[in-house]
Amino acid sequence: MRPILENSRTRDETSFHLCSSVRTGKPRSLTNSRSSNPDFRRPLYTRSNRSIYSQLKMSCPAPSLKDLPKVAGDLKSELEGFNKSNNLKNADTQEKIILPSAEDVELEKTHNALIAGVENFQQSTLKRTDTKEKIVLPNAQDVASEKNEKALITGIENFEKSKLKHTETQEKNPLPDKDVVQQEKTHQNLINGVEQFDKTTMRHALTTEKNVLPDPEVIEQEKGQKNFISGIENFDRTKMKHTETQEKNPLPTKEAIDQEKSA
After folding, report:
1. Do 56 and 18 form a contact (C-beta atoms < 8 A)?
2. For residues 44 and 27, is the Cβ–Cβ distance under 8 A?
3. What is the CB neighbour count within 10 angstroms for residue 30?
C-alpha cells in the first residue's frame, strides 16, 4: 500500500480534507483536486487511515456560532438593501489593442539584429594588430619659442629691484582759460533761464497752419537731390580706378611745442 502523506504539503491538504469530513460527517475524497497525482484519486476515508481520521475528529471540533465571523450591521443592511437595477448602470467595455507602427517594428528588428549580432559574434574572425605609439618631436620653432618663454619667466623671477630709480610723481591741475570760463557761464545762465522761466509772462497765440506748395525752384532742388541719391545707390564700382593712399604725419612746429609746454 502506498503512503498517503508523502510531504508536508500533502499532509496539510490531507488534514484539511479530513477536518472537512469530520465537520460534515461524510468522508471526502480528493478525486477532483489533483487529477494528475494518482495518490489523490482514491477516497481518504479508508480502513488504512481510520486511526488518523479518529484523531483528527477529536482535534478538529466544529466551530460554534459565536466563533463564526460577524458582519457589521450597517454593512449587512446595505448589502441586503442593495438594488442592482437602480444603482448599477450598463457600461460597454472597449478593448483597445494598439498595433505597433512600421517604424516601431523596424526599430525593434534593428535592435534585435544588433543584439543577435553581438551575442553570436565570432571572435575567431578578429585579426591581431599591433599598436604603434608615435612621439612627435618639436621642431626648431617650437624649441625657440619655449626657450624665449622660459628666459622671460626667469628674468621676471630674478629681477633686482635695487636697479630701479626713485621717481616723484607730479600732479598737474591746469586752470581753465577765459574762453572756457565764459562758455561755462553762458551754459549755466541758459539752464537757469529755462528752469526759472515765468510762464505768466507768456501771451496767448493762435497757430495758423499754412500748407504752402513748393515753387519750381524747390521742386527742381528736390529732383536734383533724388537724382544725387539714386546715383550714389546705383554707382558702378567697376568704373573706379585704383589709387594709393599716402599718409602724412606732419611734426609739430617749435611754436606749437612751446605753447603746449606753457599750457
Report:
1. yes
2. yes
3. 20
Query: SS in 3 state form for 41-104?
Result: CCECCCCCCHHHHHHHHHHCCCCCCCCCCCCCHHHHHHHHCCCHHHHCCCCCCCCCCCCCCHHH
Identify the pLDDT of residue 148.
93
* Phi and psi angles of residue 76, each rounded to the nearest 5 degrees, phi first: -65, -45
46-63: per-residue pLDDT in tens? 555 556 556 555 556 667
Name the 3-class secondary structure at 29.
strand
Q: Cell triple for residue 102?
A: 512600421
Q: Which residues of the chain are under the pLDDT cut of 70? A: 1-62
Cβ proximity of 22 and 56 under 8 Å: yes
Considering only CA atoms, which of 59, 15, 52, 22 is closest in space to residue 7? Answer: 15
3-state secondary structure of 21: helix
pLDDT at 26: 46
pLDDT in tens, 103-115: 999 999 999 999 9
- Return contacts of 174-177, CB within 8 angstroms, 24+ apart: 174/263
pTM over 0.70: no
Are the C-beta atoms of residues 100 and 108 closer than 8 Å to each other? yes
Return the domain boundaries, the chain. Answer: 12-59
